[in-house]
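ingest -> validate -> predict -> emit
validate: passed (alphabet ok, no gaps, 501 aa)
predict: started
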Amino acid sequence: MEKNIFSLAKIFLITTIFWSVSAWSDDTQPPFCAQLIQLKKSPRFEHLSYPIETARFYNQRCKVSESIAWLDQNGTLTPDAAELLSAIDNSYHEGLNPNRYHRDEISESIEQLKKGEYDASDAIASPLFWLDILLSDAYMSLAKDLNEGVSKYDELRETKRARNEKFEWDRPQIEPISYPEYLAEYLKLHRISRSLSSLLPDYEEYYALRDALHIYRTAEAKETGHQKGSGKTNGSTSQKIIQKLLINLDRFRWLPRGIEKNGTYIDVNIPSYTLRVLDHGYETLRMKTIVGRGSRPTPILYSTISHAILNPSWTAPKTIVRKDILESKNISAFLLSHDIRVYEHGRGELYEIDPTQIDWSQYSGKKQIPYTFKTDAGETNPLGKVKFLFPNSHFVYLHGTNTPALFKKSGRALSSGCIRLSAPQKLYDYLMDRWGNPDDKLPDTLEEPDTSVALQKKLPIFLRYMTISAENSNTVTIYDDIYNYDEAHWAILEKKGVKIK
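emit:
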């Protein structure tokens, strides 16, 4: 790493420097708050990372105090400042770049003050004032990155769209924070370090990835033979591993906090083709999944499972109607081979009709057709015996399957977006044992179709996109980037200064 900013802060804190005391007590030094309007008009202020939030912080502070935030009346950096400088340096270990938080500028200001190379009467050029402003802006920038991620949702969406690539990713549900008020609160409590660490993702996997990042960087990115993979990992270099660690650490910052510590949740990691149930971070159930193919990706989202449907019937979604049914060479034969019935709407009801009596050519290329396509509940139904519903705008859900042999494949991006489960009955029994009615056990046979069974508790569910995992700090597993999100994500991070080394 480059020079350690905290060592500079430590020297500055423990040394009694005559010039700093005299400069601060000199009658020619303009009061900070009196000069705030002019300082905010400076081009240097406008080029801060968050000039509006920094201005709001000082506007509020100056209503209750004339003092600046990070230096005491003797012009010495406070312990709060020391904690911030240490946090800036340690941001490297979180996969961030300390220079995003003015590390070099702060170092230069400290050196300038140590040498006394400034005009104490010029507020606009005062390194004392600018050091304080840089520290406040650095805090809010670091806090925002830890809480929301370096990459932003809108940036990833626009990057994917500019490449004409599919983007099926719901906006992250991040708890909003007013960073100026947050900074003011924790400055008053003198708990700067705690205020920043509390913003870190509170998932055990995040810390495992962070530890792995430290191991691979410390090993100077040499291949150590620690990686294994479910995808094409034989040619992976340590640089590639570090890059994926950095990408996925940032994705964890997009996840809502408090889910893991509050109990049980379901995690579907799309690239690993795996569903897990975790209880306070400990895995209690695992099974294989089949997810959406590249042209029909499974969306990344967060929701809650509320109920299950036993013995479900299946209604073909618009995508399958348009791209599979209507594009088949012999539509009637396709429908017959998949046990799909065709219904026409009339008087508020559905009436089954003979597909051989329809002139399908008139609907070629059309997005809307006046028919509904359904498969009855039973052995040939593509949803199997049970499906699990959770609110989402993509109309995806978890379900069983009538083609279990597909789970023998290593690459299982095969569906039209929904998630097929290798052991749906195990998941159903797990949920019912804990949050269901004992009478709602899944029987071997069901005559009544589409029987709804409610859970007594809404269980959080993630459909995530993590392309690397760490079993421990020395062992990582890389998964195929099946929807090509990593390249776009890394382009954003790299542009913002995140570095492999």
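The chain has a mean pLDDT of 87.
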